[in-house]
Design goal:
By secondary structure, the protein is an all-alpha fold. It has helices spanning 4-20, 25-34, 40-131. Helix 2 (25-34) runs antiparallel to helix 3. The chain starts with a helix and ends with a helix.
Length: 132
């Protein structure tokens, strides 16, 4: 009879767990606190709470894994964007360097043009005064 008692107790706890599946957390906790530790009701409540907590942990881990995967994808995308921005910035710097050099050449060309214009103007004035 001693060997049969744990099986009957286990069956009772299993049946109580099945009964608790549809109950709220509050009701399960209250039943657990109303019964002494080790009693079938206390054990069933503990098992049901452990099952629910395990399910919530599994759901949270799954959600965390999905968020982590999205975060990795976003990080890769940002790295690609940063690389593209870096390359574009290098190209702009090269263009600015070329523009700066072209600006220097243009400045020299303007000075030469002004010089030639002044020489031509003085030459014209000289020719006008020479004929008079």
């Amino acid at each position: 009879m001693n060997e049969e008692t744990p099986v009957v107790g286990a069956d009772k706890v299993h049946a109580l767990v099945q009964l608790l599946r549809t109950r709220s957390y509050e009701e399960i906790r209250q039943r657990m606190y109303d019964n002494p530790p080790g009693s079938p009701w206390w054990s069933a409540c503990k098992i049901e709470l452990d099952i629910r907590n395990g399910e919530q942990i599994a759901a949270a881990l799954s959600a965390t894994a999905r968020v982590l995967e999205k975060s990795r994808a976003s990080t890769q995308h940002f790295e690609q964007l940063a690389e593209t921005l870096h390359e574009s910035t290098k190209e702009v710097l090269e263009m600015l360097a070329g523009t700066k050099e072209a600006g220097r050449r243009l400045e020299i060309a303007v000075y030469v043009t002004i010089g030639i214009t002044l020489v031509q103007l003085f030459n014209l004035i000289f020719e006008v005064f020479r004929k008079r």
